[in-house]
Amino acid sequence: MLEVIEKLLILQDRDRKIARLREELARIPTERRELQAKAAAAQAQLEAAKHKGRQIETERKKLELEVEAKKQLIERYSLQQFQTKKNEEYKALAHEIDMCRHAINKLDDQQLELMEQAEAAQREVAAATKLTADAQKNIDARLADLAGREANQKRELEQLESNRGELASAVDESTRIRYERLFKHKGQNVVVGIQHGVCGGCHMQLSRSTVVTCQAEQEIVTCTNCGRILYYTRDMDLAVAE
User: Fold this and answer.
1) Domains recognised in the chain with CATH numbers
2) Model confidence over 23-39: pLDDT tens digits?
């Protein structure tokens, strides 16, 4: 194998690792936002359950005030009955008292219904509180793991990038420029082997002359279809195209 090919393969391996780490690091902010969104959603459900409970309690207190107001009316109407000497006024006040008592009965029924709803809301809050706590605990652990992974990947990336320049400078400038252009436009598979007579990058059949020249290991050979840099080793199955 040509020495320059060996250097390119080392450089390519380094660039692949760097690219992989950069991609993984780029995904971390999204993963973090997703976890934070889950925590926020769990908290929102808990707040919604609490709000529902507060609404029920407010409505119940409102009914209590209405009942108290009706009772005060009954006391007032009863006092007026005691004071009046007219039969018609007495009957009218009696009717108002009955209406108030009927309203109180309806309000009492509504209060009972609200008490049942309040108990159900309390159970919902308790369940939501536990779910939120469990979810937050899990999310906190995952966020901590994510932060640890991010720190490790940043250190690893820094180490890989620290001497990447040395590996690149070991390759002659024209070949390095060609390699870096290919790496930018063709992806991470730039220096590829020949297997069964085809390019390891684009998988197109290579001509006999291309394969033979590559096998001779006297010069850098590129795929006539995709432009990738080719190499050959003895463990590869060399099936030359006719």
Assistant:
1) 19-165 (1.10.287.1490), 172-231 (no CATH)
2) 999 999 999 999 999 99
